[in-house]
Design brief:
The protein is an alpha+beta fold. The protein contains 24 helices and 17 strands. Helix 12 (219-232) runs antiparallel to helix 13 and helix 13 (237-249) packs antiparallel against helix 14.
Length: 605
Amino acid sequence: MHESVLEIGLSLDERCALVSESLLRRRADIVLHGHSTLYQHLIATFTILEAWGMSEEVCLAGLVHSAYSTDRFRTRLFTHGERAVVEQMVGTEAEKLAFLFSQVQRDDLFRKLEITDVSSNAKIETKTRSGKSIQLTRCDGASLLCIYMANEAEQRTASDGSPRPWLSRVSEWGRLLRMLSVSSPPPIFDHCTSLVTADDEGLLLNAYCAAVSASKKTYTPRFSALADASQRAPWTAEPMIWLGMVALAHGRAPEAAMYGRRASRLIHQWASPWDKSLSTTQWLSLATFLIDCGALVGENLSSFSRRINALLKGSGYRPERWYGRLSSADLLTTPEADRPDSAESSPRNAIKADSKRRLERYIAGLSFDNNIDSMQWYPSLPAQPWYEPSDFSLTRNLEMHSSEIIKEICMLDHSRYHREGEPIERTGDWDVMLLFERGKRNEENCSLLPKTSAIIESCRSLKSLSGLAYVSRLAPRTRVEPHRGPTNLRLRCHLGINIPDACGIRVEHYSRTWSEGKCLVFDDSFEHEVWNDSDHERIVLIVDIWHPDLSESEITVIEGLQRYIQAQSRKLFNYWKMNETTRIREEVFMNTASSVHERRPIDAS
């Protein structure tokens, strides 16, 4: 029996390189598939699945999902007699999923999922391409759905790259996937909790196509229609980018930056463009451009808006023309071209390269940006309002020991809290008890919560300037108005301690409430607000953690920069204090000497 790669301990990087080499050896780079080659399609599908946080087995299955041919793609890179060869590269589970992908009648599978009681552990009975019956486990059904969703998102496009209908279909598959409840769903469509109707998708497509081909006379109304359609189906980045460009052309820089941030989050969630006339990297460049323009004010903004307006109207509004004009004007960072045979075409290498480019952009920004708020914003970092708590070791640990933590915190005297001091509008009382304050441990408070402190102090971010940990108490009938955190480098974890009815939290457009002993994790750089409309106090433990998409090298550099800032701050403070002390001492000495001189008696002789 052939030994699988998972069993011989190859890393995911090594497995990807092995598969990539084999695909190129079998000339997948010259086999046409949709709008690209089969090689590019397989690599892109892997990238999407990995960006969605799918398991390694599902990602690797996506990397070879069409290699045996499918019911809609007849070219074979591997025969059924070579299954052992594929298994050696990707592992037993991934090969099984790829083979099922090639055999199952997908339309029949979708029909069966609609009528199957997926809440039970019963197997899903469907048909193969030859008409034979086959039974799938719920886990296999969910994994195949993930691959179908990524496959559809990557390849569905018109011949010129413009979008075609597929959002409503994929959102429905996401609903089926969530019903299976066997793994974390992809982050798209708010973790597959929302559906896009065919009517809303049609409105979005019509409004988008009209906007990108708009003439000067119809410029404003067509983009107004696009804004309305995007509100009804807010799951694609490209309409957000066009709305941001129009806002910038009219001098509304903060609005343009807002659209840029939304677009950037969506691009990272999908890891594939909806409008494929530009690449993911190019669309991300446009989103980043909008975000960077958010700081423009005054005459700089006015002159820049006039320039953007002229470029926009002169481009005929086609995305590739618009991108080309901005790039030619040196307003964008030109992405490196990806060649199928380049080292960068490996999906794992591409992710590492993105991490390196992010860090380089952040460091470069420090050389000219004196705005402290901008310096706390890390460029091109994927973002979403809510995260799955079970994905983080800290939250799992907090929930495991929640009964002990709740007992400790509930025994606290209210005199240990003090009023929350940030200038955030509120009605009622919002009190806190600080445990870790951006790198500083509050020894007295931590001694009162020894079990809680022991659990959270292993959290790496608390030793940095980016992290806080504290107990937060909302008095009855208290509301904290919408606000944003200062940085996107961190996520915020809430552990429910005392949770009455009629209290909750909204992050961006999505509201949730707490449960005692359970965690919520969100990005507090999104607009958020909290409320307690009950007659009892609401208490949560809050702990900050590093953003999960930051690489180890990025975190290490950021921590080093922060240590340098702290050390220099201490030195400067001591230096200024020394000079001030010397100045005061000298001043006292001079005043004393002057006073003595004035009191000295005059010699009569």
